[in-house]
Write a structure and sequence with these properties.
The structure is a homodimer.
Chain A: E1 3-4, H1 7-27, E2 33-39, H2 43-59, E3 62-68, H3 74-86, E4 92-95, H4 105-111, H5 123-131, H6 140-151, E5 160-164, H7 171-180, E6 184-188, H8 195-200, E7 204-207, E8 225-228, E9 232-234, E10 239-241, H9 246-249, E11 255-256, H10 267-278
Helix pairs in contact in A: 1-10, 2-10, 6-7, 6-10
Chain lengths: ~280, ~280
């Protein structure tokens, strides 16, 4: 059985540093504050929001919640973004996506100040991530993958990492972050041929396809570390499952994240860390 | 002996379309114009500038050349960039880099308007390239690699491409462009272990390390297409050589670009195409 790379200990270690940084900020008179901007009431969003708020409260981070009706107009959304941008008491913003179809998501993302863009949705953040320049915020889930690997001492430099998926939320940013850590990075996707051949030769496989249990045992080999970013509800199994067929794969590889309680458990801890960094804390 | 993927026919094919687009623009009263901004007199820059000017003249594209002294101050450079930005008769700008050390290159690049950034040096261009959004300009040399592969009918979709090098001028942008073409892309670099194993399994190898003849025959396998972006002066051999050991590799692979007269011969044709696109031509 593979080592189980649970998210909770990673989040706890991140939180310890964040709490200390919050303390130091408050001594300097700064009250780190997260703005949350939500349109509508999607259960995924509200569940994540609750988790983020709980973590922030626990860490002494304040939260300013802005929720807009499902049918909000673009102008009203942009006005809220502008308010959050100009409010010096809000250090960073999490805006839930996807936005309802009547809204121009690209324009909304671009309207957010890069320095407050805690989840890496703006063009400015994309440019910093791609170029490897300091100062930007990567999407929290992508950074959670790296935090998890580093917490468990998985070597990255010079190792072969295969990222399955090329979304802007996970696949591409994880690839950039792994490259920044000097891993040799391969990005696979729906058009990739003979995927199992590629993933089997990796030291690290990051699964971010968004298809339930689609990476089966033939994709893996002994000794590998597997990070499963997928969170899918399986009708068949009546529970949440990852993109990896955990039952078959966990007996084969060296280490694997569970779903749930793997990467997903680290994401809000990364968000809290980003709030503190945006507020000027040393993290 | 491998098929020789020369750059000249690729450039000629690009030029044919560019010439037609210039013609159509002129009928609409638009005179496509390239601004060239050069600081100092580095021989590499002046040689490239001459080649670019010759190609533009041949295609009916006008060129506005701005050359500044080697010891120019940042303010004077920024003033020139602002002038080029605001000049509606200049459709796009090529700014030579690296800039002399007294200058803040990052600030200078960011000062250029993204819509006029023909060589992909601004954060705005980086964001468009990384996200795969339309409308931006990739660095000309990176796009030349793709143009060359497409000209010679090398299939990209679903194929394995290994890019050796991760610079912002070639390695990373080529990787992004190949990914956009649905190739499966691996980025290798100085910290990559067992590089030959990785390159040998690729369908396409793009060499952009900047080290003379450093990819030797053991890195390649029959059937591969090799694009050599390196241009190095070999003291030993008294001539320009690529990053690939051409003499040893050309007998082994299916197709390979020569150095010189390979990718390098396509770059100014891509630049000219970018001028026309920036001027509103359909390319």
């Amino acid at each position: 059985m593979a080592e189980l790379l649970k998210g909770a200990p990673v989040a706890a270690a991140l939180d310890e540093k964040t709490r200390e940084a919050v303390h130091l900020l408050k001594i300097r008179g700064v009250r780190p504050t997260l703005g949350i901007l939500r349109v509508g009431e999607r259960p995924d969003d509200t569940a994540y929001e609750s988790a983020a708020v709980r973590r922030c409260e626990k860490l002494g981070i304040e939260v300013r919640r802005v929720s807009l009706p499902e049918d909000v107009k673009q102008g009203a959304l942009l006005a809220q973004i502008a308010r959050l941008n100009s409010d010096d008491n809000v250090h960073g913003v999490l805006m839930f996506r996807p936005l309802p179809v009547q809204l121009d998501e690209e324009e909304a993302c671009a309207a957010l100040m890069t320095s407050k863009d805690l989840d890496g949705v703006t063009p400015g953040s994309a440019a910093l991530l791609y170029t490897g320049a300091p100062g930007g915020f990567a999407p929290c889930t992508a950074e959670a993958v790296i935090a998890l690997l580093e917490h468990y001492g998985v070597p990255l430099e010079g190792r072969r990492a295969v990222v399955v998926g090329r979304s802007l939320v996970i696949g591409k940013p994880v690839a950039m972050l792994l490259l920044e850590k000097n891993a040799t990075v391969t990005v696979c996707h729906s058009r990739t041929r003979a995927l199992p051949e590629l993933t089997r030769r990796a030291d690290i496989v990051v699964a971010a396809l968004g298809r339930a249990e689609s990476l089966t045992a033939d994709c893996f080999a002994p000794g590998q570390t597997v990070v499963d970013v997928g969170i899918n509800y399986s009708e068949e199994r009546g529970k949440l499952v990852g993109d990896v067929d955990f039952d078959a794969v966990s007996g084969l590889v060296a280490a694997i994240t569970p779903v749930p309680a793997g990467v997903g458990a680290v994401t809000t801890a990364v968000l809290a860390k980003h709030v503190v960094r945006a507020a000027g804390g040393m993290l």
